[in-house]
């Protein structure tokens, strides 16, 4: 395990005990938690993107603000729903953010997940072409986005206003190396193989939209191996990266026990359910004493197969609590999976 980052869903609302009661709270606390994470030696700050919900929705202003307050931390998304995106505008935003960060952006993208809006992407002006599915549209947007950040020409030049230039113009700015830091959030083995063929890194979450009857970590480890095999077969010139997400809740004091004792009893095994009409297997929550969690994570096949671990954080409990939690993971749990804290 080379890197550990946190993954925040950016929830906000007036619920009981919430310390993020407004969107402003969630955004500003996201920045402060990223700063605290860098001081702890954590390697990355990642944010989920949801639309039409009280969660983080527009990641680039947040990531640019974090970039300006940190110097080493990777910053990224997990994941952006590409059904919603104008690929060229997103290419400009991503490149500008990456330049502000000095090349630290790690951008997770995907077809997206179930959402509150019945047809939210259409409200944003994006509808599938004839005989195209939502997933096809997301992949089409992704292809154009990746072309744009790679410097391909995408708009015909007008010589009158382009200094005599003819042909296709690329979007500006460009950020060298960004194209190799795009991750696809793959929910199945098949999509992981597809992403590898295109040279995108693999971002695998706490669920897979398939179930073969084996434990979640083993199924995910199989997905990772298929990804790595497909990457090698494609002959890409750069090395791939693979991340997995886990809910890790160390219980070290009475406050932790009050919040997480129920999870330790209720969510300590895989779950099988239905999402988008597909049978899905959901990974368990790791909650309990740090030494027990260290043993369990050291035996997690997918954690061992990945190079990056994203720890989901209960962001509504506030910056101080989550910084304490990340510190306990860094000191008492992460060394068991081969990780050591970065030094600024």
Description:
With 344 residues, this protein is an alpha/beta fold. Helices cover 39% and strands 19% of the residues. The protein is built from eleven helices and 15 strands. It has helices at 23-40, 59-69, 87-101, 120-123, 134-149, 189-198, 216-234, 254-266, 290-298, 301-305, 319-332, and strands at residues 3-8, 44-47, 74-81, 105-110, 155-156, 168-169, 182-185, 201-204, 207-208, 242-246, 248-250, 271-275, 278-282, 286-288, 308-313. The strands form four sheets. An eight-stranded parallel barrel has the order 1-2-3-4-7-8-10-15, surrounded by seven helices.
Blueprint of the fold:
Elements: E1 3-8, H1 23-40, E2 44-47, H2 59-69, E3 74-81, H3 87-101, E4 105-110, H4 120-123, H5 134-149, E5 155-156, E6 168-169, E7 182-185, H6 189-198, E8 201-204, E9 207-208, H7 216-234, E10 242-246, E11 248-250, H8 254-266, E12 271-275, E13 278-282, E14 286-288, H9 290-298, H10 301-305, E15 308-313, H11 319-332
Helix pairs in contact: 1-2, 1-11, 2-3, 3-5, 6-7
Radius of gyration: 20 Å
- Order of helices and strands, N to C? EHEHEHEHHEEEHEEHEEHEEEHHEH
The strands making up the biggest β-sheet line up spatially as 1-2-3-4-7-8-10-15
Biggest sheet record: 8 strands, parallel, barrel
